[in-house]
Each structure stands twice: as structure tokens, then as C-alpha cells.
Write a structure and sequence with these properties.
It is a single chain. The longest helix has 14 residues. The chain is elongated. The chain has eleven helices and 15 strands. It folds into two domains: about 150 residues, Medium-chain alcohol dehydrogenases, catalytic domain (Quinone Oxidoreductase, Chain A, domain 1, Alpha-Beta Complex); about 150 residues, NAD(P)-binding Rossmann-like Domain (Rossmann fold, 3-Layer(aba) Sandwich), CATH 3.40.50. Strands 3, 4, 5, 6, 7, 14 and 15 form a seven-stranded mixed sheet that branches. A six-stranded parallel sheet has the order 10-9-8-11-12-13, sandwiched between helices. Strands 1-2 form a two-stranded antiparallel sheet. α6 links the parallel β11 and β12. About 30% of the residues lie in helices and about 25% in strands. The protein is an alpha/beta fold. Belongs to the NADP-dependent oxidoreductase L4BD family. It comes from Agrilus planipennis. This is 15-oxoprostaglandin 13-reductase. InterPro entries: ADH-like_C, ADH_N_2, GroES-like_sf, MDR_fam, NAD(P)-bd_dom_sf.
Length: about 350
């Protein structure tokens, strides 16, 4: 018998989870059946999207999150012992899976052999953030060489990857950040052409300066008034991938008060914009995306920056690090518990 430890939702929260809003419990796992395999988590993610799913999470459910886990026992030939998977198993140490999409979250995906690269990339550039950016840019935005792309939430894990893929495709890339430190990181280290500090810069003036011929594509991580301003500066037949609405994640009132929603229809109609919201779970060809991102990493075209925090018990501190305006890293928690 294997005992799993997991965080479950004790009560709904309004900003980022506190220790009293989650509860650490134990779960005895049954023996494996045919087609199943057992994994042990090694790295867990803390991501902004967790807040978006909080209102629809049930009290008592395992707290949402992605992880890289090692297969320790298997009765499934497609998931052999010793290999690593990336999946949305949540904040738990051990999980039994049959390798199939359970309807709520995507099926676990085997990570490729990484050589000297860290396996922790499976919760970042080779995991859900990387796959999300890959499909949002290439399938929805479909950028062409010479076009101008704006990325909001540009210093987030998804935002940094999305911007770099747009650069690979030959775009001029403008990143919107929450601080100059983040802006200098994405321009000096990741190759973005320009950044705009949403907290102190005049967004309208700088959009007109950096994109004098208008914006062709927009990868939207934040929503709200920032996105309204970007839409106003888009060209006819512009493409928009709506990945998140981070500007509203920490404000329960604005998340559900549609009377306060910015007016975007004039820009959509007049400029005939194609706007598509998406969840990465809609895509089935994750392996292709992961292998392509890996190739770009190996070539040096995709860069990453990780902050590893030791110990399952430090999940809450990891959230605080992720939420800092100065943060330029993918914040990752290394397990097992107490180490």
C-alpha cells in the first residue's frame, strides 16, 4: 500500500491560497489494476491559472496544479517504470493513472529523454505552459514574418514562451509587464523587441510608438482594460488568442461583475478581429508540441529561468514568490515532503 499526501480545498479563497484554506490529508492508494501505473511527484508547479479555476473547484477536491512525476510501478506497457510524465495531477505526492484523459484534465504525457536538461522543464517549457504558448501562437495567432505581436502577462512562464515563439516566427514582439525588472529581462535576455510597464507607462502612447503600423496579433494573458487598449490598436483582420484574464484573477468582484467589463465590441466589429479563447486541453497532439519546444531549447532559441523551492510544505511560499512584480522565473516546488 502506498500512502499519498495531498492538499485539498478547505474553503474558497480570494487572492492566493493561504495555509488555512487548504488542508493536507493522506490517502491510501489501492493496488494497481491492469492498464494502470503509479507515479511519484518530483516537481510541482505554481501558476496564475490556478486562481481562474478556484471558483469552480469543489470543497474537498485535490488542489489543482501540474507536476512532473516518475513512474515507480506500472501495469501499462505504454508507461514504463523509470520514465517521467507531465500531467495535471494536482498538489499530491502519489497518483494512480490509466494514462487516459479523465474529462477534466488532459491525459498524462511521457516526457522525452532530456539528456543534461533538467526534468523540471516538464512543468514549464516542456509542460502545460509551453504547450499552451505553442498552440496559442501557432494555431490561433498564426503569425507571419514581419508582423507585430503583443504579449500581455509577458513575464509569466506562458508569456515568455509565447513571445519567444513569435520571435522565432519572425515577428516584432512587444511585451506588457508589471515592472521594469521584468521588462528588462524579456528584452535583454529573451529577445523581445520592446516592453511596456503596465503600472507606470502610458500604454496607448507606447503602443503607437512601438507599433506605428498597428498590431497584427495579440496573445492575451490578462484581459481587462489592458486588453481593451491593445484591441483598439489592432489592424483589420487581426488575430487574438485569449489564454487568460490575470488582471481579474485577484479581484473576485471584477471576475464575475459583467457590468464592469470593458467595452470591446467596437474594435472587434470595425476591425473584423478574430478572437478565440482556448484551453490547452482541447489539443491532443501534445507530444509534437513538446518535442518542437525541446528542439528550440536545444538550439538556444527558447530560453528559460527557473526558481526551485525545496519542500512540499513550501507551496504557499512559492505562490508568494510567483506573484511578486519582480519575479522573472518559473517558480517550481521540489518534493518529496520535508526535503
Amino acid at each position: 500500500m502506498v500512502t499519498a499526501k495531498k492538499y485539498v480545498l478547505r474553503q474558497h479563497y480570494h487572492t492566493w491560497p493561504k495555509t488555512y484554506e487548504l488542508k493536507l490529508v493522506e490517502e491510501e492508494l489501492p493496488p494497481l489494476e491492469d492498464g494502470e501505473f503509479l507515479v511519484e511527484a518530483e516537481y510541482l508547479s505554481v501558476d496564475p491559472f490556478m486562481k481562474a479555476f478556484e471558483p469552480i473547484s469543489k470543497i474537498g477536491s485535490t488542489f489543482i496544479g501540474t507536476q512532473v512525476a516518475r513512474i515507480t510501478e506500472s501495469r501499462n506497457k505504454y508507461f514504463p517504470v523509470g520514465r517521467y510524465v507531465t500531467s495535471c495531477f494536482g498538489w499530491r505526492t502519489h497518483t494512480i493513472s490509466n494514462g487516459i484523459d479523465n474529462g477534466d484534465y488532459p491525459a498524462p504525457v511521457l516526457l522525452p529523454e532530456l539528456g543534461k536538461l533538467p526534468v523540471s522543464l516538464g512543468v514549464g517549457i516542456l509542460g502545460i505552459p509551453g504547450v499552451t504558448a505553442y498552440f496559442g501562437i501557432l494555431d490561433i495567432c498564426q503569425p507571419k514574418k514581419g508582423e507585430t505581436m503583443v504579449i500581455s502577462g509577458a513575464s509569466s512562464t506562458v508569456g515568455t514562451i509565447a513571445g519567444q515563439i513569435a520571435k522565432i516566427k519572425g515577428c516584432t514582439v512587444i511585451g506588457i509587464t508589471e515592472s521594469d525588472e521584468q521588462g528588462e529581462w524579456i528584452t535583454n535576455e529573451l529577445g523581445f523587441n520592446y516592453y511596456i510597464n503596465q503600472k507606470k507607462d502610458n500604454l496607448q502612447q507606447l503602443l503607437q510608438k512601438y507599433a506605428p503600423n498597428g498590431v497584427d496579433c495579440y496573445f492575451d494573458n490578462v484581459g481587462g482594460t489592458i486588453s481593451t487598449r491593445v484591441l483598439n490598436n489592432m489592424n483589420t483582420l487581426g488575430r487574438v488568442a485569449v489564454c487568460g484574464f490575470h488582471q481579474n484573477y485577484s479581484n473576485e468582484d471584477s471576475m464575475f461583475n459583467f457590468n464592469k467589463a470593458p467595452i470591446v465590441q467596437p474594435s472587434i466589429v470595425r476591425k473584423q478581429l478574430r478572437i478565440q479563447g482556448y484551453l490547452v486541453s482541447r489539443y491532443t497532439d501534445w507530444t509534437d508540441a513538446i518535442y518542437q519546444n525541446l528542439m528550440w531549447v536545444q538550439e538556444g532559441s527558447l530560453k528559460y529561468n527557473e526558481l526551485i523551492i525545496e519542500g512540499y510544505h513550501n507551496m504557499f511560499n512559492a505562490f508568494l514568490e510567483m506573484a511578486k512584480d519582480s519575479n522573472t522565473s518559473t517558480v517550481i516546488v521540489k518534493v518529496p515532503i520535508g526535503k
